[in-house]
Amino acid sequence: MVGWLLALVAVLTSSVHQVDATAHSTTDPASVWVVVNKTHPLPAGFRPELAIVRGYQVARPAARPLERLLGAGARFGFKIASAYRSYAYQEHVHAATVAARGQQAADRLSARPGHSEHQTGLAVDLVTPGDPGCDFDPCFARTPAGRWLATHAAAYGFVVRYQPGTTAITGYRPEPWHLRYVGRALALELRRTGVRTLEEFFDVPGGDYPTPR
Ligand SMILES: [Zn+2]
């Protein structure tokens, strides 16, 4: 009897924690689950509803959760280095990088316009000015701040979007400083299931740009 009850409880709890993968759109640019990658660009004209967090523009749904995350990690002294970036701004950055370094290097260093998650306003890059040695470097993952984010960001609805070993899937190299807001339910579900990318969870293609310029 006890065994049967435990089994029933296990089934009920697992179904309670399951996330309905169709609850939000993955193609609507304003959806918190939108998948943006090198094969799924955003429209040039898309601009999210914005709010201000510590002087930076972020999409409205991500603003309060970001404030809570930054508050909870206050001892690391996180600073936002980049949040919402407009299509025009990304176009400018990418064109300048192409001019300076060539197309191939530019594609490694910055997203083409429309292909950056930052245009959704749901992505932020965090740095730690008090301990800046690993800012924007893969070694950020091994710092106390980077480890804390990897463990605790999900509780605030954020995921580390570009993790080691997922470049072929996401199209981007590991960026342990780049957080993407997806909401707490999905962030915790990804952690529970061990699925590391939105592409795999939603079965959406990713990878590199389909055609070189
Ligand atoms: Zn970023």
TrEMBL record:
Origin: domain of life: Bacteria
Residues covered by the D-alanyl-D-alanine carboxypeptidase-like core domain: 58-183
SUPFAM superfamilies reported in the protein's UniProt record: Hedgehog/DD-peptidase (SSF55166)
Pfam families hit by this protein: VanY (PF02557)
Single GO molecular function: peptidase activity
Signal peptide location: 1-18
PANTHER family for the chain: D-ALANYL-D-ALANINE CARBOXYPEPTIDASE (PTHR34385), PEPTIDOGLYCAN L-ALANYL-D-GLUTAMATE ENDOPEPTIDASE CWLK (PTHR34385:SF1)
Protein name as it appears in the record: M15 family metallopeptidase
